[in-house]
Design a protein that fits this description.
Layout (H helix, E strand, L loop, with lengths): L1 H17 L3 H12 L4 H7 L9 H37 L18 H15 L3 E2 L5 E3 H4 L19 E2 L6 E3 L4 H10 L4 E10 L11 E11 L4 H16 L5 E6 L4 E10 L16 E10 L1 H6 L8 E8 H9 L12 H4 L8
Helix pairs in contact: 1-4, 2-4, 5-10
Bound molecules: 2-{3-[(4-chloropyridin-2-yl)amino]phenoxy}-N-methylacetamide.
The site of 2-{3-[(4-chloropyridin-2-yl)amino]phenoxy}-N-methylacetamide has 20 residues, from helix 7, strand 6, strand 9 and strand 10.
Length: about 350
């Protein structure tokens, strides 16, 4: 019988050495030290041992049980240690790797231009104000000296909101907000009004049915055309280069008298004549003029006491001129190949 004890000892120790995972160890434990394991079997067989050998047999089995228990604990610690170091190696995070860059949004070129232009005027003393895109016909037209039968007011130019009461339109320019500003304040008034505008347009490379304008307005005692020229020249030079020459020519808008068209010498050919300026050497960037006395009267200002000027420009057009964008439709197609070019972070 003691031969059998030794045989089981050899086998158990050999198998324990083979068991290299927690699962294998648990199986081994069940096989030898479990309730129905080999050691229990050996104990039971004591009845088959001749009585005089029983004490020695019992001691041998107990000794084996103690030995196997100790070796098991030892082996278990070993296996746990090596399993842990394997996991640490497999799941290791290299904290020295650079992080993946997060996707960041950029500002739309039209937004960037609005901020650039309004900032220039803010530094010249103009406050930025914004207002509604849905307007009464009164603010969009009547107050601006645009009569009821003017072609700008028909359904082929202006987008109307269906209404059985007052005439309501999507504003075709940002001027309504300047009227609202003058109604609410007394001179001196100096504001710039950026915002989205709408017109019923046949869409092509230079016309969209919605676009952005920035208008400016200065009203006070003694405001003259000279202030307009100086302000616009300073603006154009900050936006398009200090060396810019400027040109004023007569133009007509119903809400100003006199009206002017303001141009800069072409920054691509320096006035030589090229594709951008269509050979003229000049680029028209905005319309302006002295606010019509009737417009001042409409907001309750006395045109004998106050004078003022206003100007208006198309934001998309400015971006197109500054960066050589060939088609206004690119601004509203959401194509990142176009938009990313205006954002370092996305390019
Ligand atoms: C253009 C021309 C212009 C104005 C806008 C204006 C506003 C008020 C009173 C008088 Cl409340 N005038 N705005 C004046 C002249 C020209 O815009 O071609 N814009 C793209």
């Amino acid at each position: 019988m003691s031969g059998e004890v030794e045989r089981i000892r050899q086998q158990a120790l050999a198998e324990l050495q083979q068991a290299s995972s927690t699962t294998a160890l648990a199986e081994w434990h069940g096989r030898y030290l479990g309730r129905r394991g080999e050691l229990t079997q050996l104990m039971r067989r004591i009845s088959q041992v001749p009585p005089e050998e029983r004490p020695a047999y019992g001691q041998a089995v107990n000794a084996l049980k103690e030995e196997l228990t100790a070796r098991f604990e030892q082996r278990e610690a070993e296996v746990k240690r090596s399993e842990l170091s394997q996991r640490l190696a497999a799941e290791a995070v290299d904290v020295t790797l650079p992080g993946r860059p997060a996707d960041v949004a950029g500002l739309h070129p039209v937004t960037q231009m609005i901020r650039e232009v309004t900032t220039i005027f803010n530094h010249l003393g103009f406050q930025t104000v914004e207002g509604p895109e849905v307007e009464y016909g009164y603010y969009a037209f009547d107050a601006l000296n645009i009569p009821q039968d003017h072609p700008a007011r028909d359904v082929w130019d202006t987008i109307f909101i269906v209404s059985d009461q007052k005439e309501i339109v999507l504003r075709p320019h940002t001027s309504p907000m300047q009227i609202r500003t003058m109604e609410r304040r007394q001179p001196p008034v100096r504001v710039v009004v950026p915002g989205r505008c709408y017109r019923f347009e046949a869409v092509d490379a230079t016309h969209e049915w919605h676009f952005h304008q920035i208008e400016g307005l200065a009203v006070d005692e003694h405001i003259t055309m000279a202030d307009l020229k100086g302000t616009l020249a300073e603006f154009a030079r900050q936006l398009f280069g200090q060396e810019r020459k400027v040109r004023f020519r007569c133009d007509y808008f119903p809400f100003v008298e006199p009206g002017v068209d303001f141009a800069i010498d072409c920054m691509f050919c320096r006035g030589e004549g090229c594709r951008v300026c269509k050979g003229t050497g000049w680029i028209e960037i905005l319309g302006a003029g002295m606010v019509h006395p009737q417009v001042l009267r409409n907001v309750g200002y006395d045109p004998e006491r106050y004078t003022g000027w206003a100007f208006g420009m198309g934001v998309e057009r400015l971006v197109m001129l500054k960066y050589g964008v060939p088609d206004i439709r690119l601004f509203y197609q959401g194509d990142l190949r176009f938009l990313a070019q205006f954002n370092r972070a996305l390019a």
